[in-house]
Amino acid sequence: MAFGMKNILQGGLAANYSEAPIAELEKEYSQYLMDGEKITMGFKLVRDALIFTNKRIIMTDKQGATGTKMKVTSINLLSIVNVSMETSGFGFDDSELTFTYISSPELKGHHVEYAAHKLEFPKKFNVQGLYKILQELAYENYLRINNITE
């Protein structure tokens, strides 16, 4: 499945994700990529990273005073089933994008478990572009999981 993200994100503040160059992310995180996986877009937040690839979303959380300990979490793109957004308002409001994904190993069944993850971006970030991309992906996943053809 192609997950081609366009250059739709701009700058950031210290408390929010800001876009990072793909070459920089590849240099730092290539050892976490699967065969055939490519970084399409990424963000940094102080020491942490949010990386979009053609297969999944990777979140890193560097811990401790030195940042040598790191937690890496992956969410498969095929498991994303819903997306919501909140654009920034007047004042200090941030833009927010929340995606819901199937966290259980099976995408179908009687005991499907869901989880959600909220991302915050600076006021000047155009969250609508990322929302559209993730919503299209969620819709494709909905059709595929439920064996619906258009």
What does this protein structure show overall?
The protein is α+β, with helices and mostly antiparallel strands and 150 residues long. The protein has one domain: Roll (PH-domain like). The protein has 2 helices and 8 strands; from the N terminus they run E-H-E-E-E-E-E-E-E-H. It has a 5-stranded antiparallel β-sheet, with helices on one face. The chain has a 3-stranded antiparallel β-sheet with strand order 6-7-8. It starts with 17 loop residues before the first strand and ends in a 5-residue tail after the last helix. This is PH domain-containing protein. It comes from Anaerocolumna sedimenticola.
Descriptive keywords:
single chain, 150 residues, alpha+beta, PH-domain like, three-stranded antiparallel sheet, 36% strand, disordered N terminus
What structural class do the secondary elements suggest? alpha+beta
- What does the largest sheet look like? 5 strands, antiparallel
> How many beta strands in the DSSP annotation?
8
- What is the CATH topology? PH-domain like
What ranges have pLDDT less than 50 throughout 5 or more consecutive residues?
A: 1-15
- The domain tally reads 1
Strand order of the largest sheet: 1-2-3-4-5
Which CATH-level-2 architecture? Roll
| Percent range of helical residues | 10-25%
Assess the beta-strand content as a share of residues. 35-45%
What is the tally of helical segments? 2
CATH superfamily: Bacterial Pleckstrin homology domain
Order of helices and strands: EHEEEEEEEH
Any idea what the radius of gyration is?
A: 16 Å
Question: Could you report the average pLDDT, rounded to the nearest whole number?
Answer: 83
Q: State the separation between the terminal residues, measured CA to CA.
A: 18 Å
Shape: globular
Q: What is the CATH domain class? A: Mainly Beta
